[in-house]
Amino acid sequence: MHPILKLVAQRLALSILLLLAASVLIFVGTTILPGDVAQSILGQAATPESLANLRKELGMDQPATTRYFNWLFGALQGDLGTALTNGRDIVESLGGRLKNTLFLAFWAAVVAVPLAIFLGLLAVRYRERWPDKLISAVTLASISIPEFLIGYLLMYFVGVKLGWAPTVSTIYDSMSLGEKLSAIALPVTVLTMVVLAHMMRMTRAAILNVMQSAYIETAELKGLTSFQVIARHAFPNAIAPVVNVVMLNLAYLVVGVVVVEVVFVYPGMGQYLVDHVAKRDVPVVQACGLIFAAVYIGLNMVADIVSILANPRLRHPK
Amino acid sequence: MSEKFLKVEDLKIGARIYPPGEKPRNIDIVHGVSFELEKGKVLGLIGESGAGKSTIGLASMAYGRGGVEITGGKVWVNGREILGTNLKDLRKLRGTEVTYVSQSAAASFNPAKKILEQVIEASLHQGKFSKKEAEARAVELFTKLGLPDPENIGDRYPHQVSGGQLQRCMTALALCPEPDLVVFDEPTTALDVTTQIDVLMAIKEAIRDTGVAALYITHDLAVVAQVSDEIMVLRMGDMVEHGTTDQIINHPVEEYTRDLVSVRSTQHDGKPPTDNPVLTVENVTARYKGTNFDVLHNVTMELHPGQTLAVVGESGSGKSTTARVITGLLPPREGKIHFDGRDLSSDLEGRSREDLRELQMIYQMADVAMNPRQTVGTIIGRPLEFYFGMRGAEKKKRILELLEEIEMGPEFMDRYPAELSGGQKQRVCIARALAAKPKVIICDEVTSALDPLVADGILKLLENLQKIENVAYLFITHDLATVKAIADSIAVMYQGRVVRYGPKADVLAPPFDDYTDLLLSSVPEMRLGWLEEVVQNRKMESAGN
């Protein structure tokens, strides 16, 4: 078998194993949480009999392993159960939310990733000179300010004072793409500012590392311009570390947007999760956890595979 | 100016250095060097490291490596003064009129791009050829340089061809844009001797056929004698002597040049083997973990007390692997290691502290074999503490003794490795090995990274120490001149096997087996016309077979 296929297969198998392990952790974690779902649903009206009945109805009287495997096989078949609080199918209500979160993350990534890499290249080109220092200062400053503060600042100045973008980012299916994009302009800006520094710094560091190589000198002695040397000869050899940090940030864009969604009243997964954690709706929390874990593991797997593919020694064995 | 294609006048080069704990300061690397070069001629620049050879070579492209800066003088290429021109015009010159072949093609090719793409890049970038023309020219050069499958070799990635092939690809890269001058910077130094011959011949023919001028930089006088018309000897940034190749090799005027020419004259008469070898490697077969092929096959050799066994061979022949087996880093699949009358455990865990003490190692790269944050005293003192429990004044006294043995003064005790020269670093490594009072020291290419004169000093030191301490050396090297200078017996290794083994006089006397013959005849000799002679002989032999 081609060594690449073997490595990729290994990564896939590892990721699946990791996801299973994550599912166990999520299940155990939510099961040992203090508080009783039945108690919180019935509230003041709870009597010992009604509690026992409800527990039986919810399947809580069965052993934890049985409940875990029921839940896992359900999830594998696309059934994440029903929300305890409103009795609605989780997959159905989560689907729309997930789509919205991915929509936001996608547009943030479209802006942030190329911008970060370009700024990284630019920083290398003018290293230790003012453009490099300016880029570093601005990106580091923006990552250092809490995202909710950036969110509110943008809302106040750009949204309210200048009136350039809506301050509430709620989107509906009936909106056109243009209307949606206009609605999410501010949260996309916030997310971009939050992830930019990390990716930019890594691109800069990875390329600077490669710039020490002898083949960079060869390229310079061919009479190429500085930017050609960086983009054509240095960047292709810096892909692996850059992809890794890009994927970590993409995962953050999906998993870590809770605060931004709440600030901008954006109907995504984060808000949905926060709502249901407050209500102790365990099946919803489990479902969200599982999806977040899958996204995280999946993106990191992609990073691993891209790193493998970026290595010419593995791609073209002797 | 038509025939004087390259003219260098009073070239001065400096650099800004940042010594630890001191203020940055400027130093001079080259102090006013002048020379001229005609079209189609080859000038050899020779000297030890730090002589400024590469720096001068790169200055002909107005390029300074790292913090190096050209501080004075003038350089004319094709009648144009280039040091005063701006970067934009320089870029037009680099890669078309003047090109560069570096020492390590493996490092100088971008690993992520195909060979052909890199070979033709400069021609395309400078608009010298169309893509089609450049590709055709590249294939033509691949053929001329004797590369296998010239039509398709360019589609491979650098790691997919051998070191010798890649070095020839680098030459093709330099010749592709039809330059007027090529700077060859130690192009064969990293190659095995048997490969070196082919690459040297390929370079020589390519220079002759294309009529380019060339600067050929090397520290190996025997090599430069084969390819140059003229030789310039440099030392610490000054020109020592400049003349025709014949004059420099056969009638050197300056003393330094005479030292360089005679450096390989160290003599050593082999001692006869004794009855009780101190180290015996018996039928060792070994493979690396996770692989399914043996890298050593039935390797057997003996090392006698107070003697030197040279293990010689090309890269990949299994020399260093043999050392790994002896030290216990790689347990063999079959075979045994006897040491001073006892069996050594095959793996490191099973060895006693005495076993470890009596078998020490010295490495090729002295830099990386020492902790840069420890002083020389700490480095040498460590084995004294570890093996003998020495402390305080007793330890200090012994450290000073050892420093004296390696011919370094007591003031070195508080220095850090970064403050030492390459030869001094290797001496400290020798002292560290001696501190353990070993019976055997494995020397793995200990002189390969050093300049000839410095290496000569190290070899002499090792020989003296052997007489005083009666220590045996297992001396791993690819350099046959070193072998002749130091060995009592020799094991020639090839593809994981010992192909020839015995006392030095027997191994180096005919009749030879094919491989030893090839190896011995490949060592450059310091006389004109040697290269042609060898190549001619080989052609006749292969025609005869």
TrEMBL record, chain A:
It is found in: Cell membrane. Gene3D superfamilies: MetI-like (1.10.3720.10). One of its GO terms (cellular component) is plasma membrane. Its main location: membrane. GO terms for biological process: transmembrane transport. Residues 98-303 form the ABC transmembrane type-1 domain. Keywords: Cell membrane, Membrane, Transmembrane, Transmembrane helix, Transport. Pfam families: BPD_transp_1, BPD_transp_1_N. It comes from the Bacteria. The chain crosses the membrane at residues 12-33, 102-122, 134-158, 181-199, 242-264, 284-310. The keyword DNA-binding does not apply. It is a multi-pass membrane protein. PANTHER family: DIPEPTIDE TRANSPORT SYSTEM PERMEASE PROTEIN DPPB-RELATED, PEPTIDE ABC TRANSPORTER PERMEASE PROTEIN. Belongs to the binding-protein-dependent transport system permease family. This is ABC transporter permease. It comes from Aliiroseovarius halocynthiae.
UniProtKB/TrEMBL annotation, chain B:
Its main location: membrane. It is a peripheral membrane protein. GO terms for cellular component: plasma membrane. Pfam families: ABC_tran, oligo_HPY. It is found in: Cell inner membrane. GO terms for molecular function: ATP binding; ATP hydrolysis activity. SUPFAM superfamilies: P-loop containing nucleoside triphosphate hydrolases (SSF52540). GO terms for biological process: peptide transport; transmembrane transport. Residues 6-261, 279-520 form the ABC transporter domain. The keyword S-adenosyl-L-methionine does not apply. PROSITE patterns: ABC_TRANSPORTER_1, ABC_TRANSPORTER_2. Keywords: ATP-binding, Nucleotide-binding, Transport. Coiled coil: none annotated. InterPro entries: AAA+_ATPase, ABC_transp_ATP-bind, ABC_transporter-like_ATP-bd, ABC_transporter-like_CS, Oligopep_ABC_C, P-loop_NTPase. The keyword ATP-binding applies. This is ABC transporter ATP-binding protein.
